Each structure stands twice: as C-alpha cells, then as structure tokens.
C-alpha cells in the first residue's frame, strides 16, 4: 500500500499497536556503542548520541534511563510529507495530560509515552480514530 497523506484517511487508519515491554531514552557515553539490532531509535545531538532501547538493554549496558516509556506504533503507512497527523495525535494525548515523544520512521510514526500511561494513551488514540470515523459518517 502506498503512503497515505490525506489527514482524514490517516486518522481513520491509525491502528495503534503497543509494543510489549518497557523502553527507555538514554544518551551514550563517549566511545559507547549499541548493537544496531538492539536499537529502537537513535539521534545524534551535540550532547551525544541519544538512543531508545529496551530497558533490559539499557541496564546491561549501564545506561542511565532518562525516560521509561511505552512504545506505540501507528501502523498506518503515513507519508513523510503528510500534514497534521502529529498535531492531531499529540493534541489528543495532550488533552488527556499524556506527554509524548515522537519518532517518524520511513513508513510509520512511533510514539513514546510514560510507561504508566501507555494503556490510557492507547485508549486516547483509539478514540481519536473512532471519533474521526463517527464524524465522517454524519
């Protein structure tokens, strides 16, 4: 299926999935490395390389977990140039008082939320998807 850019279609097709486990954001120290197979995400910043990995990987490597989170993937194939998707789901989560950190992959958006709010975040995203469907049916 080709990437979707229409916001209404994207919202109808969110299909969020919560990955099993606990994930963490951490910064690698000088010379420290992580096997690419263990990475969820990586960003090079002036302060160092930020990574998202499973909590057990961070423990094994002695990384300081800065944020313990649940990892939600929006399984809709979103176009990297689509407008409004991040704003829609981050606003919905914000109204529920749930912080989110977003990483866009080439095909999907990945949302990291506080681990203790992950189930609630899933419910918010599912309501967002259903609300859009209900509005379109009118």
Automatic annotation (TrEMBL):
<dbReference type="Pfam" id="PF10000">
    <property type="entry name" value="ACT_3"/>
</dbReference>
<dbReference type="InterPro" id="IPR045865">
    <property type="entry name" value="ACT-like_dom_sf"/>
</dbReference>
<feature type="domain" description="DUF2241">
    <location>
        <begin position="4"/>
        <end position="69"/>
    </location>
</feature>
<protein>
    <submittedName>
        <fullName>ACT domain-containing protein</fullName>
    </submittedName>
</protein>
<dbReference type="InterPro" id="IPR018717">
    <property type="entry name" value="DUF2241"/>
</dbReference>
């Amino acid at each position: 299926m080709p990437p979707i850019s229409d916001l209404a279609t994207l919202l109808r097709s969110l299909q969020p999935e919560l990955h099993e486990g606990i994930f963490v954001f951490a910064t690698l120290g000088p010379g420290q490395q992580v096997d690419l197979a263990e990475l969820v995400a990586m960003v090079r910043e002036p302060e160092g390389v930020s990574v998202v990995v499973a909590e057990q990987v961070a423990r094994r490597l002695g990384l300081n977990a800065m944020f313990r989170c649940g990892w939600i993937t929006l399984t809709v194939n979103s176009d990297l140039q689509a407008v409004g998707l991040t704003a829609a789901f981050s606003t919905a989560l914000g109204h529920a008082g749930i912080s989110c950190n977003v990483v866009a992959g080439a095909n999907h958006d990945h949302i990291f939320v506080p681990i203790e709010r992950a189930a609630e975040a899933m419910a918010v995203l599912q309501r967002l998807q259903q609300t859009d469907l209900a509005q379109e049916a009118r």
